[in-house]
Each structure stands twice: as structure tokens, then as C-alpha cells.
Amino acid sequence: MRTLHPLLATICTPTCRPVIAAVRMRRGKAADSGGAAKLVSEALATAQEAGCTGMRILRADSQFYNAGVIAACRRAGARFSITCGMNPSVKRAVLAIPDEAWQQITCPTAVPDPDTGEPTFDAQVAEIPAYTAFANRKKSCQVTAWLIVRRVRDLAKPATIGEQGELFPVWRYHPFFTDSPAPVLQAEREHRHHAVVEQVISDSKASALAHLPSAHFHANAAWLSLWAMAYNLLRAAGTLASAFHAKATTATLRAHLVRVPGRIARSARRLTVHLPQRWPWQEPWTQLFAAVHASPEAALHP
């Protein structure tokens, strides 16, 4: 059981919590980059079939920084924004950025330092407009786009303090590779939102994926697919219920819309659900019930 882990892709919009576009069970020894291009292609195709219009941007962490993933994005007509880490090529490019090129920003919410856990509010951002990735590959695999870097003070390595004050700051760099058409500061802010996928992972650990049911890989893979379908159905229910429930956590949706404190009575061959008086979630639940039981004609012509 310890050698299995799920790999998933989500669709995120500004008005609701993410839904799952593609999911796959993997063995622990398998690298995330293996099969990543196929997973990205499936997720982007699902997003288009689900009605996503406008510009689609793949946001991913450094495990997906490879030529195959970027090629899959371009085949699908999508943009990419992928963390690339400080590999030797990126490190040389980042350290060559002049000091005057860095722009000071203040994060609206504190970013925790990964080593110390202390909150960091201030950061600096710079860009390299034409960085060529995968330069050691053949010409067809090389990609030229923006390299955007955010740097924050390394709280685990405080700057040297002497009689003359701070001698030099120590920085932690967070580069990502993107072809987003947005301005640099907007592109950097939007890229940091890729952590929204952690909401889905947190939901999974609090529900069906807390314990996988079998010692067999394929049984666990089927369980993962069933969880993904149940998750998306519950997210759809929340969207139909109210604007609040569209952004609520899965645990909240179960408490408000699924585990309803009602009583079912049968009379004259009819079932009647008696709900509690002054129940705070009566209106969202009723709206969800009406939407689900509406005729197809009413659903097509609201």
C-alpha cells in the first residue's frame, strides 16, 4: 500500500473549487514525469469537452517540466506555466539577472518558508524574455519562452550581520517557464495559484483515499476512478445548490447537502421528506433538489 500514489489533473475556474479532469494510480517507484504528456493531453481534452472556453493554461510543478508536456500543450492549443526548479541551465540564467531587473512585490497572503515555516510577505520578481529550454535536445524539442523568477529571503540562512550592517542577502529562487501572454507580475501571481490542486488532494485524504481498500494495484486504481467520479458529482451538486456551496469543501457539502437531518414518510404510495424547521441550508438543498428533478425540457430552457 505504501508503494502507490495517485496522480491527478484538475480544472480550476475563478468561481468554484476545482474538479478532476484526469486521474491515474501509479506505483511509488514510478516518476511523475512518466506518462505525464498523455495525462496532460487527456486533461486538456476533457477541459474542452466540459465547455471551457477562452485561453487554457496548464499550471504544474517541476515534475512536469519536460519537452513532452509542453508539446502536448501546444498540440492542444493551450498555454503552459510550469515550475522548472534550479537545474544548472536555469541557475546560470537566474544568477545572470542584473540587480536592477528585480521588481519588489508584496504578497497579499504570507508565503511560508519551506524550511523554517516562517511567513514571508516580501518578494522580488524578474523575467528573462527569451529563455530556451531543453537546449541539449534536438532542435524540434527546444522551446523558447519566458523564464519568470520570484525570489524571497532565505530565512533558514540569515544574512551576515556585522558592524556595517548586512553584508549580503541570501535568496531562495522559484523559477517557472511559461508562454502566458499576461504581464510578468500577473503571470507570476497566476502561477502561484497552481497550488489549488492541494485542495483536491486534501479532500481525498479526508475521504475515500484515506485508506486504499485492497492489496491489488488494479482494485485500487478502480477505487481511485470511483472516488474521482463521486468527487465531481458532489462538486456539481454544490454548484447547483448555491454560490457558497460552489466553493465549499467536500466535507461541508456532505454535512449540508448529503447527510440531511430529514425523515422519510410514506402515505398513499407517495414518499414525503420531512426536513427540520429553521434549517439553515433549506434553500440551497431545495434548489439542488429542484434542479436535479427538473424535466429535460426545463433544464435545456431555464
Task: Tell me what the structure shows.
The chain is an alpha+beta fold. It contains 10 helices and 12 strands. It has helices at 36-49, 67-75, 88-95, 184-192, 197-205, 217-241, 243-246, 250-258, 282-292, 296-300, and strands at 4-13, 16-27, 57-60, 79-83, 103-112, 119-133, 143-153, 161-162, 165-166, 171-178, 263-267, 270-274. The strands form 4 sheets. Strands 3-4-10-7-6-5 form a 6-stranded mixed beta sheet, sandwiched between helices. Helix 6 (217-241) crosses helix 9 (282-292). The protein is elongated and about 80 Å long.
TL;DR?
This protein has helices at 36-49, 67-75, 88-95, 184-192, 197-205, 217-241, 243-246, 250-258, 282-292, 296-300, and strands at residues 4-13, 16-27, 57-60, 79-83, 103-112, 119-133, 143-153, 161-162, 165-166, 171-178, 263-267, 270-274. It is an alpha+beta fold.
Characteristic key phrases:
29% strand, 34% helix, alpha+beta, 302 residues, six-stranded mixed sheet, 10 helices, single chain, 12 strands, elongated
